[in-house]
Amino acid sequence: MSRIFDALRRSEEERKPGEESMMPAAMTNPPVPPPATHAELPDLVDHVAASAPPVDERLAELVRAARNSTHLPDFDVEQFTGQAPLAMEVPAPIASAVEAQVDLSKFQTVPLSAVASPQLVALSSERGLGAEKFRVLGARLSNIRLGKTLGVLQVTSSVVGEGKTLTSVNLAMTLAKRFDQKVLLAEGDLRKPAVCRMLGMTDKPGIGEWWEQPEKPISDYILRIGETGMCLLPAGDVSHPASVLQSPRIAELLASLRKQFDWIIIDTPPLLPMADSNLWSRLSDGTLLVVRKGTVSRTALKKAVESLDNPKLIGIVLNDASDYDRVNYYDQYYTPRGDKLAQEAAAK
């Protein structure tokens, strides 16, 4: 057949003017087909409905609808599968942090060697029992926020002297170093900030200076601790803490920062007697309450919790609750059996 068409083409090319063409008219001037419409779709619906299982009957209904409309109708997945579709959600703080992770290299870096306090077990004794407890706390907090929004965490206590600042710093460093998270630790105690001094630094400018100079970005006041993923936002010099905390600017600031960090941990004042922690609670996703054994009475603890207008208590950290040796915990636990020299060294 192809040879016949080749011969016809050659004769058409060699045809002299005036001679009648041997090519059929349909091949020399092919008709232009009209544009197809939904009404001219092949009628395969009956064939599908007659020869296919019930699921294809529903597919056939969609085909019928397609011939009469330019849009397919909405349909429910349940009618095909017999069960509701599986929903998979990502917690908001994690998703937002992934979308716009901050570049830590743009912040001023504080050498890690300046952080030499023995109380910071997340740095000074990573193999100790205290550091292990903070790793457990970090794991539990990470599990909690799989089911709820938990990106901004307030750490507070009932009264002074319960170790809330110590807990805040160790937790932030643990999440940054052991969980590879980008963590912002904020000095939320605008009256008596203590985080800078615990990290071996003098008081640095921070929230107070940002408040007085709104034209400056907050990134000018954020410090990076060594080469870790932990950053610090100092309190700075604040003249009227209550006015700052009640301002919409602070809420907008946290909303912006939570998109850049995996965690924001705020070390806030004790619940009694000031109202600052109550104001921070409204801006946080959850509150972690630190209770030191033998420091606070049950009455004061109950009164402190009741003072929160919007309680978001997610857990209590019992501080100073054990006399175990925090330094050689791992050495004792992981010493191979029969290694007497290592056991003696661990005992010392």
Could you characterize the architecture of this molecule?
By secondary structure, the chain is an alpha/beta fold. It folds into two domains: 22-88, no CATH class; 94-319, P-loop containing nucleotide triphosphate hydrolases (Rossmann fold). It has 17 helices and eight strands. It has an eight-stranded mixed β-sheet with strand order 1-4-5-3-6-2-7-8, with helices on both faces. It is globular, with a radius of gyration of 35 Å.
Write a brief caption for the model.
The protein is α/β, with parallel strands linked by helices. It is 41% helix and 11% strand. Strand 4 and strand 5 form a beta hairpin.
Q: Which short descriptors sum up this protein?
A:
eight-stranded mixed β-sheet; alpha/beta; 348 residues; Rossmann fold; 8 strands
Topology (elements, then pairings):
Layout: H1 2-14, H2 25-28, H3 45-51, H4 54-68, H5 78-81, H6 92-99, E1 108-110, H7 121-124, H8 129-144, E2 152-157, H9 164-177, E3 183-187, H10 195-198, H11 207-212, E4 223-225, E5 230-233, H12 241-245, H13 248-257, E6 263-267, H14 276-283, E7 286-292, H15 298-306, E8 313-319, H16 329-334, H17 340-347
Parallel strand pairs: 1-4, 2-6, 2-7, 3-5, 3-6, 7-8
Antiparallel strand pairs: 4-5
Helix pairs in contact: 3-4, 8-9
**What order do the strands of the largest sheet run in, or round the barrel if closed?**
1-4-5-3-6-2-7-8
What do we call the CATH topology of the largest domain?
Rossmann fold
Q: Note the quaternary state here.
A: single chain
Tell me which CATH architecture of the largest domain applies here. Answer: 3-Layer(aba) Sandwich
Domain count:
2
CATH class of the largest domain: Alpha Beta
Give the rounded overall mean pLDDT: 74
How much is the radius of gyration in Å?
35 Å
Low-confidence stretches: 35-53, 69-99
> What is the number of strand segments?
8
